[in-house]
Amino acid sequence: MFDKSCKNLLIRGVNWIGDSIMTLPALRALRKGMPEARISLLVKPWVSPIFESDPNIDEMIIYGNEYNSTFGKIKLSRLLDKKNFCSAVLFQNAFEAALIAFLARIKERAGYNRDGRGFLLTIPVPVSKNEKKEHQIHYYLRLIEQLGLKAEFSYPYLYIKFEERLRAREMLKEMKRPVLGINPGATYGSAKRWLPERFAEVMDWFIKDTDGSVVIFGGSNEVEIAEEIEYFVNRQGSNPPIPPLLKGGEGGLLNLAGKTSLKDLISLISECDVFVTNDSGPMHIAYAVGTPLVAIFGSTDARLTGPPAGEEVKGNIVISSGLACSPCFERNCKNNDMRCMYEISSDDVYHGIKEILPLKPAVFFDRDGTLCKDTGYINKYDQLQIFPQIESLSLLKKRGYKIIGVTNQSGIARGLVDEEFVKEVNEMFKNQYGFDDFYYCPHHPDDHCPCRKPEPEMLFRARAGYNVDFKKSYIAGDKESDMLLAKAVGAKGILVQTGVARESEYADFIAEDLREAVNWILENEKSF
After folding, report:
1. Which residues fall within 8 angstroms of residue 175, CB to CB, at 6 or more apart?
2. Cβ atoms of residues 214 and 182 within 8 Å
3. pLDDT at residue 397 above 60?
4. 3-class SS at 350?
5. Of 19, 54, 279, 366, which residue is the catalytic one?
6. pTM above 0.70?
7. Of 163, 186, 276, 286, which residue is least crowded by CB atoms under 10 Å?
8. Exactly one of 19, 54, 204, 368 is catalytic; which is it?
9. 478 is catalytic
10. Do 374 and 409 contact (CB within 8 A), yes or no?
11. What whole-number distance in Å separates Cα of residue 447 and Cα of residue 295?
12. Sheet arrangement for strand 492-496
């Protein structure tokens, strides 16, 4: 039986970008199940940026090239031995992962019983018969469940530092909005790659239809594919031609293939308004940073490795051919015709883009201190004192804005507020004051959840449900976390002086009350 009281836990991470992202829900479940443990993660350097800002781990140990040899593995085992881990959980399936944990003299070693390594594990977990029938996320969650811990599904989420978001926005500041990101490569093989000329056709249509721009992403081994797409764009003879991005001026196309680190890639994809990609590491990044996504599948199965099901999936579209030979899971097409990719037309992909492209403006409102007086943990209607200026929000509705509430309600986790009461109040705002929706975070601050402001996960759900364009939107609140949230997504922040804070360096405007905030929005809306 797995020792849940372990205070010093090692996790062996997996080696690929997409797989690493699919372990994030299991990592979060481990943290929830073992809140007192110090959790260290052993990973290869090329996936480490995925975890750098994740609050669910306390330490990252880099499995660098110096540990690749036999002597290096012994050296790594000795390093781990000195850290006195009481347990190790192996997400990686390799024999080597179990061997290193064994040589490190970690008393308890848990992982799937495969690759001939069962004798090295103290808790060899049998592989489920449903392994090839369900999403890979559940493969890792089942391992946690078999250890006796609660393993609830949570949507993968990549934590991005505030300054990294701002840096990415600065890198794309000359690009016309909306910005389409495309990733035409795929590491696994050519059978996963859609046709370069069709990527080019979609890019051409997008720029002409939206007056926006396109960023091409890719690794150093995908530079040729990106250049081929640029060639097809030019060959198509766009009229007027699509200009490259020039320093100091606006352009329609920016080729970043082979020019970004993984850390920059994550934040840059988060800044795109929509993303088109093959089944690849960047595809997993896109859904984990909340960017609306069109994913193209040929030889692989989206049910196993595509954007996972969840409320956020409303903003994701998967396109596949549906041919009998697909998915085949081959690196290269055995029939030498790539029919599964040829069957997917440029029209199919562009229709998907238009369906999820966020174009609608919205105004997001905090609740306590903004819409109503902050009287502490509000749990009764007689504590709910709504500001009379809320009537002015109807002017925003008339101008076409979506009106959406976003509120942190940690009182639910603290046992001070009834969650059903929060839901009732939210419905009241929708029915009486015209709110289109109202989202809330029920978690304790110590949970470090992705939905607690200033993390933007609640806004991602709103964007997926209502096609909200953050860059044309506003966030009004009375706290610094509201202003940081606005900056995180590129919206304009309005600090309302009816609650906690009186000033904020991150606010675009400081309003005395809701009415002044609404008036400023109506006067300012043409500045976008």
Report:
1. 212, 213, 215, 245, 250, 251, 254
2. yes
3. yes
4. helix
5. 366
6. yes
7. 163
8. 368
9. no
10. no
11. 31
12. 437-441, 402-408, 362-365, 474-477, 492-496, 509-511
